[in-house]
């Protein structure tokens, strides 16, 4: 089937991201820190007075009695404080030819994260489209301008490289995207080979294209209608320099913490200093790492001395060299000739 993948699939709109209101209050005692299998560290929280403003999440019990974490109606599967990222499950939009009615059925999706701390990661996500059609048009819009991209030839291949599967990058500071299919989409001529097309913004390195996605509904059903999506998050809409002037709202309140400007839009993040770990958003949240108790990450083949924020690794007394790599050797003045050692041994066991 040498027809072309056709879709005027999506619009990525660049909307201003308003930073979350700044409230440095710590969570109240008794606040939940876990929902199902997901850890929920402050500034995130579940329930009233448990999060920094703008970071409140819901823990819902779904069918089967499993607890799952949500922001709005989007499930969150993990949160990283050091990376300033969260992974969500984004809905897959689809459009299929219905042979019984000779019409098009579809279900499209938009995700609006404006006025929240989140924006889509431009480094880790790609807009991905799968399927076949005859109208080769796609469009990405950012502000008033639009960029058109070539569509894909519908020929089976093992990678998402523009043949049956297309991917495109997204701009920075993006908080809203919408998927739609061209009004002139018509797969009646190819329905017996590929009756559906799919489109979703997803985490690129977690996506593996299978040729069966073109000819079956496997892509949608294998993923339960969703795909992983990474969002960057940040505190407020100020730089570190500006935020640090107001100590009542500044978020990096733990000693041994530092402020880092967001690399994807406005705002900033907090991290523990090198040699410390924990939560920089709560008082005394950054704790010293005991490097001596973790020999796998901090190898020491000698004497290990833990220090605040660092450690020392010495060769044992009477030796010198590199204790980290295990190359400690005996110092020269400690060495004795073999004959001397034998004489000493004899003098110990055979006194005159």
Automatic annotation (TrEMBL):
Its main location: membrane. GO terms for molecular function: calcium ion binding; kinase activity; polysaccharide binding. Residues 288-329 form the EGF-like domain. It holds the Pfam family GUB_WAK_bind. It is found in: Membrane. One of its GO terms (cellular component) is membrane. It is a single-pass membrane protein. Keywords: Disulfide bond, EGF-like domain, Kinase, Receptor, Signal, Transferase. Residues 1-20 form the signal peptide. It comes from the Eukaryota. Gene3D superfamilies: Laminin. This is Wall-associated receptor kinase. It comes from Musa troglodytarum.
